[in-house]
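Chapter summary example.
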Amino acid sequence: MPILTTPDVQLHYQTFGDASNPALVFSNSLGTNYGMWQQQFNALKDQFFVVCYDTRGHGASSTPAGPYSLQQLGEDVIQLLDHLQISQAAFCGISMGGLTGQWLAMHYPQRFSHVIVCNTAAKIGQEQAWLDRAALVKTQGLQPIAQTAASRWFTDPFIQSHPSLVSNLQNDLAAGSAEGYAHCCAALAKADVREQLKNITVPMLIIAGQQDLVTTVADAQFMQAQIPNSQLVEIDASHISNVEQPQVFNQSIQNFLQMNACL
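The structure predicted for these 263 residues follows.
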């Protein structure tokens, strides 16, 4: 199991495809792990050197003392690129990973040819709500959050037609680190990049789920209006659009990268 060890964190990652191809990094959402990208790395590994990792406090990565910050989440990606000797990559992050992508585009534009942010916002939710959730999981664990996750992540028809897939994702969440989840809630509570969006110069694709009640189409439209070199694609899905509509999601990524000469 590949692990990047830094003074601060042990970051679990996996790579797929030929390292001579253009690099494409995927960043998971809160409460998931790199496995959420299975339908992406299987579809794209012949064209890209795909790099997936577990955000600190998630999956097989370690859970350093918190609370975490958006800067820490972003710096982890830069250290992973350095470790893999990747000078420049495309980046795709969903929800929390999408906020990480915005931060990276602002602070390390030279390291990214393209950034794709999905089902996210420049500020996700309200600070107190995140702090309340962090307090809940610290006292009660992740089971209460996992039991209600499906309705936040997917549309009802998808939940009914893919019960085992949804159950597996819920089980992954329940089995995760409550401490790591809480520390990332703290990062989301403070993360607000709305005023900095206009400074992004990296080509950016924003993917929004038309049925997403967590990070809405309006959130995506705000980002698109603020970011100079950006475009918006809407997908008929809820919050985890890459799992609910993988073919449309993958095609949107490929179209964007091909149009912008990544391939």
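To summarize the output: The CA atoms of residues 77 and 203 lie 18 Å apart.
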